[in-house]
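Trying the structure run again after the queue cleared.
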Amino acid sequence: MARAAAGPGATAADRASVVFGRLLQGLALLGCAVIFAMTVMICADVLLRNVRLIPGVYGLAWSNEVSEAMLYLVTMLTAPWLLRQGQHIRVDIVLRAVPPRLGWYFEWIADALGLACCLVISWYGARATFASFGSGALSVKTLITPEWWILAPLPVAFLLLAIEMGFRMRRLRLGARAPRDDAVSTG
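Done. Tokens:
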């Protein structure tokens, strides 16, 4: 997918898009680090359950709970980057069956709906996070943690998704009057 470089003739929107893209790349790399940490933790748990390396330690009781949170965090960290790369899941059979100009309009409709949904989810996610923080709600499992810790990534991720939807709409406006070629299921 071609993007304008933030060179000498670049607009403020082009420069903002480049900076935002770097932010999303950084979050995706952080997501990779979380996957690596989760892999090490699960391997350590399995090893400690099966090999008595440390007397009295029979695995990491909290590893399932932490790995669940890590999977969620990886999703929130990488979703905006995946959307930017066009590596998201989409059904494009209709876009490929209709005339290109009509497919372009369908792209606009999908982006507008996506933007609206992301903003609504971000808003309600932020409200839930602040309500949880304000009430002092706790998640009581093997570990006892503030509930808002788990809720906080959701509104941030969906706000980033909403911003990326705005950049997608800008790229759609500046591009060819046809459906995008990213995330295409047909050759």
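The chain has a mean pLDDT of 91. Worth checking whether this holds up in the mutant runs.
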